[in-house]
Amino acid sequence: MKSFVDLNTRFTTFVQKIVNEHYATFDKENIRDMTDSLIDHCEGQEKIVGIVNDLFGAGSLRRLYQELKSNVIRNRKPRLSDKPNLPLLEAFILELFRHSSFPHFQRHVSNGYFIPKDTCVFINQWQINHDPEQWEDPSSFNPDRFLSADGTEVNKAEGEKVTTFGMGKRRCIGEIIARNEVYLFLTVDMTPEYGLTMKHKDCRLKARMRTRDEQ
How many domains are there within the chain? Predict the structure, then answer.
């Protein structure tokens, strides 16, 4: 609960900064975006911060939904072959990997430190994926950092900078399977059916097996 409260506090602070910047540069004759429009029509900065806060989360999911709807043939489930047509989803997954960086190491090994033979070395994944010299505003969740200017393709070079599955000869051998599993999981319809318990309309495992069979 403390982590959840902290996350909300930091996100609200982030949104507050955006709203403050819009207030400082607001021009009634030049409405630039949704935030400017809210300033023009609403009274109370706190109310605007709350609305923008809600729009951030909902907007990201809606963009993913629209991409799936536009690029996957109706009446069938997404397939691995659809991935090249879903750059936003791929960028979202890359940012998910970069931002989460689940092995949370923050200590550094000094340059020039002698590492004896057979020593087990762990990559400081967190530091690499949150290095401000490598990433613009690394603490924010922003899938667009991996997209081209027109949003039609993923910048492969930027994607390679994300170290989620290790490096070198010890790189995780299950990387390809894991990436595909995350992709398929995110494209499954999570709408539940009601009964004695809530369950998904289509079993995830069955959906994945069917998708692989179709390939």
Answer: 2
